[in-house]
Design a protein that fits this description.
The structure is a homodimer.
Chain A: H1 10-22, E1 44-48, E2 51-54, E3 59-62, H2 77-89, H3 99-110, E4 116-120, H4 123-138, E5 142-146, E6 172-175, H5 180-190, E7 194-199, H6 215-228, E8 231-235, E9 258-261, E10 272-276, H7 281-286, H8 297-312, H9 315-337, E11 341-344, E12 351-354, H10 361-372, E13 375-376, H11 391-412
Parallel strand pairs in A: 3-13, 5-6, 5-7, 7-8, 8-9
Antiparallel strand pairs in A: 1-2, 2-3, 4-10, 9-10, 11-12
């Protein structure tokens, strides 16, 4: 543990200054540390299991897992060996390798609602393609999305409007997550032009307490889509493979028509996938979507290794157990300090908030104290566990969060 | 050379049958071999330099270079070593590595109109982001694109309308490449709402004879954008780094405001970049665009190795020389057989068409005969040379094209 080691960030500071000259704002996108509390490094150097090192060689226990992609641990030896072996033959070629067929077969075997699979690079590619497939299949235009949900950063879905036009989301209608009446109302507004409903496995909006799906809500969406002849699209980009290998709503008992995957599919190698039902095959063939690196073999080899490891080992059981231990430990600590918190979301993708913390001051203090002592959490975004988080790692992290809770209590009292 | 070896494709046939069950249509996108003449393999296994092997171990001299990404040759040892070293530390992390700063600095040093750089995954990400940046910078909506030009496969630009809505391209206006009057007319229609003009370095539309840019046209676009306060966006995704390391219009003497790069930037590793002028920095900061793998370090390490190799060696000179030799050899052969052809586009990205070949029958026969004898060309898309194409490789390929021209002459006479 790094709790007694000095947290020096001179190299990070130097790199931020260099970055500011050649990258607008010094950094951009979801990994911009400029929005995080002081003490968070912007630049990272190395990862092993659930341990990461910044450019100043500070070590952290990583509870963000690269915002989701790392599911078996950083530099997983089995995945990296499969990727390296594929790289020694070829990666990006004039056509795909046989890996694309093997991976599509594996997804079809593994995911009950998958009759076929196609691959892309970004999660945004996958969600966008799902919408296009639904429109091509139905000949309709309207798409329902939950208010405030994140489905990617293309102009039709980016959470910030700068650079987009109103027409980019001309055919979007909004509902409230877990509120079936609001979905019915939006569907009524779409009328006979309803192409699809897009939904996340649970409500994982940044900065808000997370909300698990009400199974009745999920079943209601399925029935509505069946009745309306619209496609039910599950945006499984953030949750996929972490909550269930069969798709995140399989335990809920509701099967979507189309699912978008990315992030954890290849333990960090860049890949996205859309899977779906047979009735959408023709629509997939009609839509033209492609990319220079979409058929590259290395990420597919990595995905084969990742998914078979998840399938053939107790990785997901251990991942959930680590999440349970973290949740239990945090709850005990918060109570002991009289700090009121809420822990929401699945334990595999936990979120911690402080009661009354409308401006995130407590969350920022808490995560700022944790990062300085070697634990990488996030004040506003859900965290991610991996199969590499041992009970010892969780215990080490809890030593640090104990200090962080003490600091919150000290600064804010029991208010 | 494989000219005397039997061209067996039993494994490819088997894999196509398996693919048809789990991938709609068996394959999709620009690498769908279903649209290519008989004899083209769908699945590829290995690449070294300019040589590639399919899943039946047939060897080919590759003149597609993975549709552009491969610029130094498949499995370039310097690039692959840099990538492997980076991979041994980390790739996809909670933040970027220092490589992002080093790469942005290298692009700013190398490309005269680049004051900053930001990175993505797909060429489509880069062109889309350029449009968003231009709209954010100008507060305007209209974007001019050349009729028939390819700028990616997102709904706003995909060449096939299935799955899109008219609103996706509500603010696009069209001009004819190299026709300044048509640009002026479109700009007049946009009026005070003109945000940007998007243009390719040359007209490289698939299936048509390629057309180099008229320098007066390029200068006219620059003047028009300056006059209108609009952004000039160069879509350098396909050409970038192959024609000039400084941006493809630097030799033309016209500097865009924003450029989109991808394909050859990292010799096959997945990366895209937008570079631009200082006056667009604030707009970049306003636009939210990001992706799970955009900040991964391995492709950036590969890009650093690729670009410094291109800068510090005679790679681009050799690449162009190989293209010159191919063009000269093909011209001599065509003339000797009395087959009338046109060779268009830069020699680094050549295109061959047959006079009067409106249905591409001659092109399909020619490339179909070539592939069976170990030369990978394309009947409708421009080809790509790499620095790994030696004069001997070109001569070996010309032995094959000589036979292919004879077959065209035999089938079509001198008509």
């Amino acid at each position: 543990m790094q709790t007694t080691r000095t947290h020096i960030q001179s190299r990070d500071t130097e790199m931020r200054a260099r970055a500011a000259r050649v990258i607008p704002g010094g950094m951009y996108g979801h990994q911009n540390a400029g929005t995080l509390p002081e003490g968070f490094p912007q630049f990272l150097e190395r990862g092993r299991g659930c341990h990461i090192w910044d450019v100043d060689d500070n070590e952290y226990i990583d509870f963000m897992c690269s915002y989701g992609p790392i599911i078996l641990g950083h530099a997983d030896p089995i995945v990296d060996a499969a990727a390296a072996e594929q790289q020694s033959n070829a990666d990006c070629q004039d056509g795909p390798s046989s890996r694309i067929v093997e991976l599509a077969e594996l997804l079809v075997e593994t995911i009950p609602h998958a009759d076929w699979a196609v691959f892309q690079k970004n999660g945004t590619d996958a969600t966008t393609l799902c919408v296009s497939i639904a429109r091509a299949a139905t000949g309709r235009r309207k798409v329902l999305v939950a208010r405030g949900a994140y489905h990617g950063s293309a102009p039709w879905c980016t959470p910030r409007p700068a650079g987009t036009t109103p027409e980019d989301r001309a055919h979007l209608l909004h509902y409230t997550y877990n509120d079936l009446a609001s979905v019915e109302a939006a569907a009524a507004e779409a009328g006979s032009d309803l192409a699809a409903i897009v939904v996340s496995p649970f409500r994982h909006d940044a900065g808000l307490d997370q909300e698990l799906v009400d199974p009745a809500f999920a079943r209601g969406l399925r029935e509505l889509c069946d009745r309306a002849g619209a496609a039910l699209i599950l945006d499984d980009v953030r949750c996929g493979f972490r909550l269930s290998l069969q798709g995140s709503w399989e335990p809920v008992g509701v099967r979507p028509d189309l699912s978008a995957f990315s992030k954890a599919i290849a333990n960090g190698y860049p890949l996205a996938a859309v899977v779906g039902r047979d009735s959408f095959r023709d629509a997939v063939r009609q839509v033209f979507a492609t990319g220079s690196f979409w058929f590259a073999a290395v990420p597919m080899a990595a995905a084969l290794a990742t998914i078979t490891t998840l399938r053939d080992t107790d990785a997901l059981v251990r991942l959930a157990a680590a999440g349970e231990a973290l949740r239990h430990g945090l709850a005990t600590q918060a109570e002991s300090y009289g700090v009121r918190v809420r822990q929401t979301g699945p334990v595999q993708m936990p979120f911690l908030s402080f009661v009354g913390d409308t401006e995130y001051q407590r969350a920022r203090l808490f995560t700022g104290e944790a990062i300085k002592r070697g634990v990488y959490l996030h004040p506003r975004h859900n965290w991610f566990l991996s199969a590499a988080h041992s009970q010892e790692d969780v215990n080490d992290a809890l030593e640090v969060t104990d200090v962080a809770f003490a600091k919150v209590r000290e600064a804010f009292g029991d208010d």
